[in-house]
Amino acid sequence: MSQLPNCPQCNSAYTYVDGTSFVCPECAHEWTAGEDASGTENEAKIIKDSVGNILADGDSITVIKDLKVKGSSLVVKVGTKVKNIRLIDGDHDIDCKIDGIGPMKLKSEFVKKA
Question: Distance from the CA of 51 to the CA of which of 3, 13, 30, 71 falls in 20 to 30 A?
Fold first, then answer.
């Protein structure tokens, strides 16, 4: 008999498998094998720029395409350098502040590491 992991929330030993996830009958918590107690994946998501360089918090990037700012007539021009980026989850995975425009979220496919 295989040993199932204890529940990450209540540490109950009475867990069982339901499809691809584990379930705790005592606290009704469900999780997959790669999740920790907070329900997030243990593996960090790797975000790469348009050329394949791995990005990290605090990096500087350069915009490789003219980007229209939604809801405004402003445009982020090619070659605009952005310092001190923050990586976030979601469709737009870079959170930054661009001089003259303000806070923005960018997609990593439109930038390269500076």
Answer: 71
